[in-house]
Amino acid sequence: MDKSPVIEFKNFGFKYFAQMEPTLYDIDLTINRGEKVVIVGPSGSGKSTIGHCINGLIPFSLKGEISGSLKVCGEETKNCDIFSLSKHVGTVLQDSDGQFVGLSVGEDIAFALENDLVPVDEMRETVKRVADIVDMGGHLKSSPHELSGGQKQRVSFAGVMVDDVDILLFDEPLANLDPATGKTAIALIDDVWRQYEKTVIIIEHRLEDVLYRDVDRIIVISEGRIVADMTPDEMMASGVLPGLGIREPLYVTAMKYAGIDVTPDIHAGRLETLDIDAVKEPLLKWAAQKIDREIEEERPVILEAEDMDFQYTSRRKILQNINFKIHEGEMVSIVGTNGAGKSTLAKVICGFVHEDKGCIKYYGENIKDWTIKERGERFGYVMQNPNQMISKPMIYDEVALGLTIRGVPQEQIEERVNQALRVCGLYPFKKWPVSALSFGQKKRVTIASMLVLDPQILILDEPTAGQDYRHYTDIMEFLKSLNDKGVTIIMITHDMHLMLEYTPHAIVIHDGQIIGDSTAVSILTNEEIASKASLKLTSLYDLALKIGADDPEGFVDHFITYEREVVRRED
Amino acid sequence: MKTKLFDYIERDNVIFRLSGLTKLICFICMTFSVMFSYDIRYILFVTVLSCIFFWMSKLKFRQIRLMLIYVAIFLALNFVLTYLFSPAYGTEIYGTTHELFRFSNRYTVTEEQLLYQITKIMKYASMVPMGMLFLLTTNPSEFAASLNRAGVSYKATYALSLTLRYFPDIIREYNDIALAQQSRGLDFSKKEKFGQRVKNVVAVMVPLILSTLERIDLISNAMDLRSFGKHKKRTWYVAEPLKRNDFIAIAIGLLVLLGSLAMTFFVNGGSRFWNPFIK
């Protein structure tokens, strides 16, 4: 295959009209035909903007000022139009739900062909063929509401494959998928790359998950510039990632803790290629260290479920025989696939729907007769997307809303709002409009507007979804600080790093039943539970198996304890 | 949660297999023919015909029951009001007076008025089976395609199709937002004063509108990236080529329309009304 360049950025820069500063500076980047590259970078680094430049949304839909040159398949993009570029570059967007414009799978895959006036017979043939490539051939008539997130993404993928494009561009393909589905998605991209000899560009910040399969190069963007462009092996050895707010794979972190000098020669780019013999001894030695840990005393049970069932219709039970105990001051994660019943459980706790059998108890009291409003004073529910919760233009009013409704006197409101804003680090913005805030800050506003009611328990739906490592750490450290002040925190999540690092206690739901209720470490090292709940075993566990550790679970536990007790204390 | 605008259930029979375009043409032809003619004989003929088609489609009565109730109420109301406002309109049209009985000097009941009013409600009633047939046997996606093939701009018809696509999503989002606001203490139930309730609903609408706008941005980018709007025309994955049955159905539709015109011009001598009172 000829290795000529398909994408050439030369001294390229871009500034959105709506912004003061350029988003991209001096980009020099060449991607050759048949390469597979990953572009990583923290949020706001400009990595998505690079993607928009390649697929033509810039400058044709998103307006701004371009300097320098960008050629895609030999043509200067400024002189093309978005339609001719879309014949070279197929883009799979992050939000596969928004990208799904058809009323059924077949129609959605056919969308680009319809717009190109392809005759119906030929179109149906192509759709069938491409749908089979992504394994959706049996679902051509399904409507989007019947599909899972992973399936919708496959449909989007097929939708760009129908054009027989040279370049496939994936914008954060893992953002909305659970770990196991994400793994399948990466495998599918890899298979298509090998079999059809496409050029593949993946924009993503979850590097470890992308590196589940081979990539040629990793390109790191920070503050609008390319700061690194090397092979995965070199990247792991260089150590540039953590400094830029991008998480390196956990097994690499473990090797560093064990004092191993990571060089390109040990092929640390992927766990599969890692030279185990070179790292085995020091890792085992490190894992054998003893670490003192604080023993926590048992606290009273704040929330418990007893034999609880819930069903919308008589046909199918959504939740069945749910039993759990959550102690005061715990940080708990509730995990499981989409549709397993996690969100429904949160809805039952908040009283949006009512259990059919059994009960939920708060400090031992059955809360069956509590209204939504009453529950809202004890349990704060924070939705995934802050934009769905914020209904007032000003931060102060938004946070005060819950108190105003309850008719609390003005002076008292002011005092409590100030207090909540201080806890959330938002006090300086007290008089600001909500629209001036970043996503992470808006999230804090929604949390503050719950805290103002002084809840004992915070329930958060996917608190870190779509956040890069830096924002993830910000949010999680903030929640940890609330937790230290005594608030019990329950999180519904897909993020295994979150589970492992922040929640000692994890509850796994599958098909409406609890199939695991234990420490996060023991769940993420249990193959049966992980595969049922669509989780992925942590790479630390795989590393432990590879080096032949006697107690792989203990190895993972050692890592977490080491991080908590030794590394954090040093900070 | 599934929220669908029409309760489309796919079945396999002669009517379902017709293309959406055919059904649209037939619907328009038959509607026009009954709208044009005031000849009750012809209207009854079309009504019987459309009932036969309805029977052929094997649709369940329960699917249209609710709609029928609405139509019946509307027709009854229409019947009463027409009489209250113009009790002598029939006489005016047909030029004769055959009085049956009278309530008062103004409100007499004449054969002419009766014929006129029965004709009028039959006109509406006869369209119900056809309209229901069109809505319930046309796949929602084919609906947009058939409108486009009948000459409406594809950008407009695609907007319709997108509405069908995203309507359930927006309903779901509304419910989610409403729940979250309720836990903060916003009350949507009747316990709350009406004014406050309206304010509370606004508190849900603001985030809903903002997130819908965000979504529209995303969708329009996604559509741009897949060449929407590149040509003046587009083809449709769901469009069925017209088959023999389609041509037969279209022919029937056109004949019905021509029949209506023929009745007017040849049988009733150029009048849209059939007048049995003048021999």
Characterization of the model:
The complex is a heterodimer of chains A (571) and B (279). The longest helix of chain A is centred in the C-terminal third of the chain and has 19 residues, at 552-570. Helices cover 39% and strands 21% of the residues of chain A. In chain A, helix 5 runs parallel beside helix 7 (149-161) and helix 15 packs across helix 16. In chain A, the strands form 4 sheets. In chain A, strands 6-7-8-3-9-10 form a 6-stranded mixed sheet, sandwiched between helices. The N and C termini of chain A lie far apart (50 Å). Chain A is of the alpha/beta class and 571 residues long. Chain A folds into 3 domains: 5-247, Rossmann fold; 249-289 and 540-571, no CATH class; 301-537, P-loop containing nucleotide triphosphate hydrolases (Rossmann fold), CATH 3.40.50. Chain A is built from 23 helices and 20 strands. Chain B has 10 helices and 2 strands. Mean pLDDT of chain B is 86; it is low at 1-6. Chain B has a two-stranded antiparallel sheet with strand order 1-2. Helix content of chain B is 69%, strand content 3%. With 279 residues, chain B is an all-alpha fold. In chain B, strand 1 and strand 2 (108-110) form a beta hairpin. Chain B folds into 2 domains: 14-139 and 239-267, no CATH class; 147-225, no CATH class. The chains are: A alpha/beta (571), B mainly alpha (279). At the A-B interface, helix 4, helix 5, helix 6, helix 14 and strand 16 of A face helix 8 and helix 9 of B.
Keyword list:
heterodimer, A: 571 residues, alpha/beta, Rossmann fold, 6-stranded mixed sheet, 20 strands, B: 279 residues, mainly alpha, 2 strands, 3% strand, disordered N terminus
